[in-house]
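Colleagues,

For the teaching module next term, I've prepared a clean inverse folding example: a structure given as tokens, and then the sequence designed for it. I'd like students to try predicting residues themselves before seeing the answer, so please don't circulate the second half yet.
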């Protein structure tokens, strides 16, 4: 994922917390939070996408075979019914195929307007997990219909349909403390103080095509997960192309790590899809050639519930280094 995102955070301690939706509005019952912006790359083609639309453009398959008993219409309020029809083996499989040429328009999502809005689409989900003892994690999940892989030695690797990326901001006693940027199978953590912000809202820079999230614009080698070198073998590119404000059109949830239960903060947003155990795109095509275990077309990802929502550290796994300043940030382009 390559895009430039600006995450804006506003933490206001409050006895009756209110989750901020935009700087001007709030939702009763949740703390007022930091909001975020995403900088999409100036040459990005694969924009953020409406989550429901992925269901409209795919059919669930197991081993490339349609399954019986699927609800019609399939929507974000019943998607979890697929768990009993194949569980993690279910792939939301495109009608078009990953190699469709020309590519269908829906692969390209919705281009944010000049205010960073995603039109009438909902391309993000904000999930608030209370940890107790004054710690609250706010996850910002971004959805893209298509992930364009990076090129290595002029060969392309890692295209997939469906793409979930995220930032997580950890609050301690009502104040933003640290932020996680997801990058491919890993990511990077920084103190809140260290990252670039517009007001209180941190920026995330989204990799061109891959949508991996970085704290800086420039180029980023990700051959070694979590280590962001300015030059190298497998490169992500970020710049200040176009701002996406993922908070304006978003679903808002709570997550209880003890019960693994999600709840809609406004009690209206669809919840069932968060419990879906399958994948958000096609499986890797049968017979797809692999070089050193890497293929051009790979399987789609699973959803937010598999991204470490119950994590203890700011990172989903160890080692977890929270950098107090931005280093290995690539060639800054501004
Ligand atoms: C918030 O309010 C300010 C000042 O009234 C206004 O300029 C801005 O457009 C508003 N933002 C949103 C997202 O409504
Ligand atoms: C960004 O991606 C598009 C296609 O996905 C490609 O045409 C363009 O060259 C890429 N730009 C950079 C700087 O990688
Ligand atoms: C998937 O389908 C293929 C072709 O029908 C079959 O040969 C294979 O055994 C199936 N795999 C599984 C895991 O069911
Ligand atoms: C379905 O997948 C989930 C997630 O991996 C797993 O926890 C659960 O045990 C699986 N259910 C069955 C019936 O295999
Ligand atoms: C948004 O509006 C367009 C044009 O009216 C329509 O084609 C599209 O289906 C709508 N998308 C969603 C997610 O409602
Ligand atoms: C809660 O926070 C306090 C003060 O930072 C600390 O001393 C205590 O160990 C924490 N308790 C738990 C269960 O994390």
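(Answer key — instructors only)
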């Amino acid at each position: 994922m390559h895009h430039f995102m600006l995450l804006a955070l506003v933490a206001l301690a409050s006895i009756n917390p209110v989750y901020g939706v935009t700087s001007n509005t709030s939702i009763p019952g949740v703390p007022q939070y930091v909001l975020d912006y995403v900088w999409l790359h100036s040459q990005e083609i694969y924009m953020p996408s409406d989550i429901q639309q992925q269901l409209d453009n795919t059919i669930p398959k197991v081993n490339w075979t349609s399954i019986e008993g699927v609800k019609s219409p399939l929507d974000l309020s019943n998607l979890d019914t697929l768990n009993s029809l194949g569980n993690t083996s279910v792939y939301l499989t495109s009608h078009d195929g990953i190699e469709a040429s020309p590519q269908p328009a829906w692969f390209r999502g919705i281009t944010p307007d000049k205010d960073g809005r995603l039109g009438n689409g909902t391309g993000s989900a904000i999930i608030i997990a209370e940890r107790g003892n004054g710690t609250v994690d706010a996850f910002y999940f971004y959805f893209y219909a298509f992930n364009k892989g990076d090129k290595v030695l002029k060969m392309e690797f890692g295209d997939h349909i469906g793409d979930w990326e995220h930032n997580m901001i950890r609050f301690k006693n009502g104040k933003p403390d640290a932020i996680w940027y997801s990058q491919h199978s890993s990511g990077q953590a920084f103190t809140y103080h260290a990252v670039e912000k517009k007001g209180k809202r941190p920026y995330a820079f989204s990799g061109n095509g891959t949508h991996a999230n970085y704290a800086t614009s420039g180029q980023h080698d990700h051959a070694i997960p979590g280590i962001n070198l300015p030059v190298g073998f497998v490169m992500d590119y970020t710049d200040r192309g176009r701002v996406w404000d993922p908070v304006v059109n978003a679903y808002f949830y709570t997550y209880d790590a003890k019960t693994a239960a999600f709840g809609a903060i406004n009690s209206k947003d669809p919840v069932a899809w968060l419990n879906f155990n399958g994948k958000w795109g096609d499986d890797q095509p049968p017979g797809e050639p692999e070089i050193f275990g890497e293929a051009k077309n790979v399987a789609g990802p699973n959803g937010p519930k598999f991204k470490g929502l119950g994590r203890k550290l700011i990172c989903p796994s160890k080692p977890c280094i929270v950098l107090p300043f931005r280093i290995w940030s690539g060639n800054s382009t501004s």
